[in-house]
Structure formats: C-alpha cells, structure tokens
Amino acid sequence: MVQAQTPNTRSSSSRNAKDEAPFDLTGYWVSVVTEDWRYRMVTPAPGDYQGVPMTADAIKIADAWDPAKDEASGAQCKSYGAPAILRVPGLLHITWQDDQTLRMETDAGKQTRLFHFGNQSAASSMRTLQGYSVAQWEVPRTVDPRLPPDVTDPNTPRPTNGTLRVTTSNLSTGYLRKNGVPYSENATLTEYYDVVRERSGDLWMVVTIVTTDPQYLREPFIITSNFKKQSDNKGWNPTACSARW
Fold first, then answer.
1. Are 168 and 82 within 8 A, CB to CB?
2. What are the start-end ranges of the H helices in 27-115?
3. Cα 119 vs. chain centroid, distance in angstroms?
4. pTM reported for the whole predicted model
5. Which conformational region is residue 17 in: left (phi greater than 0), alpha (psi within -120 to 50 degrees), or beta?
6. What is the largest CA-CA distance in the chain?
7. How many Å apart are CA 107 and CA 193, to the nearest integer?
8. Is 87 in a helix, a strand, or coil?
9. How close are the terminal C-alpha atoms of the chain, in Å?
10. Domain range annotation of the chain
11. What's the pLDDT score for residue 148?
C-alpha cells in the first residue's frame, strides 16, 4: 500500500483519545525548576514583574496586591489557576478519567484539571480557576490515497510521537505570579505537552504555556515548565493553597 506522511496534523481515526495517545502521560511527574527560580521557589518581591508584558492596568492591580486581603476574602488560590499552576513547584498526578478525558491533579494547592478530547463541550459557562480545557493530539498522520483526506485507516499503527495541545477558556481571574500579577476572565490559555526520553531512559515532560489576555497583557506571555517522571508517588504531599509562601 502506498502511503504518504503529512506532518503536524492530528490523527483522525475512529479510536478514542486514550488509544490515539502517542505517548503515556499517566503517572507522577515532579517539577524541575531550572529557570525563574526567584519567581517560583519564593514569593517575588512586591513590584518585581520582570519578564511579564503587563498593561498599565495590570501594573496598577499588581501594585495594590495584598495577600492578607486575599486570605480574608477566601481568594488564597488565585495564583493556582490554570495559567500559573504548572509554575508552582510540586508534583503532578495524571490519569485517564475515561477514554476521552485526562485528569491532572496537583499536590500544590490540591487543584484538579480535566482535559476533554473529542466534541465534549462545557456543561456551563461558569468561570473557575482551572477553566474548561479542550485537548487534542497533534501527530504525523499517515495518508492513504485510496481514502478521503479526513479518514485514516483504523489499522494504521498507533503513532509514537507528537504533541498534546490543550486550550483553556472559561477562566476566573487569577495571578500569573504569586505577587499579584493579574490575568483577567478574558484570558485564554494554550499549552503544548511534549515528552522526551533521555538515553538513560528517564522521561521528561516539557510544557510550553501561552497565556493571551487583551486586558492585562500587551502580548502573549510564553513560558516553559519541565517535569521529570517518577516511578512512584514519592514526595506526593497535597497541601492547601497559600497566598504568601
């Protein structure tokens, strides 16, 4: 059978998202902080917004940041929303909730994110810290010239490389950094999850995080977080959100 390779497109078969996965994200992943240490390992000093393309309105809000007020109003989790949670040091636990939904739990702040594949749509328009996330695998697609362009032979071998793309909307307001750097409810988040295997056999997950917010960001805020896969749940220690640490 003559086939061609079409790069950077999503596999389009009758299999579910779990079957289509080009790599296994399930298990425990520990964050490895190799950059932005002073923004991630400790609470940044008030007014230290370096690297974030903030608008004038965002700077005014951040300058007024007061963790005591967040605690008093029950908003101590504002820096644990989807645009920021992968910057918080800690462990992730990823499982398949069902064949079309990936579940990500964080020990930092006890947060849970759900990545919905297929045609699943938000059950409501309610805004939350983690928002509503739509996921898709982006993998090289094998094209059979005997089939329509959008149809893949169900007997095609499972892909072994690719990227998980996650787009998140329906966010409530939160902080990009612990010291009050804001994002608005108009923000949207696009993430790209890639897995790399070292020669030693160690697995790394590299997540490129793109936050777009026309209200508080002059341009998309792009950062990358790295995680190393663990063989067990060593170090897993769910802790409540903190407005200060």
1. yes
2. 37-40, 56-63, 67-72
3. 19
4. 0.86
5. alpha
6. 67
7. 19
8. helix
9. 60
10. 4-230
11. 62
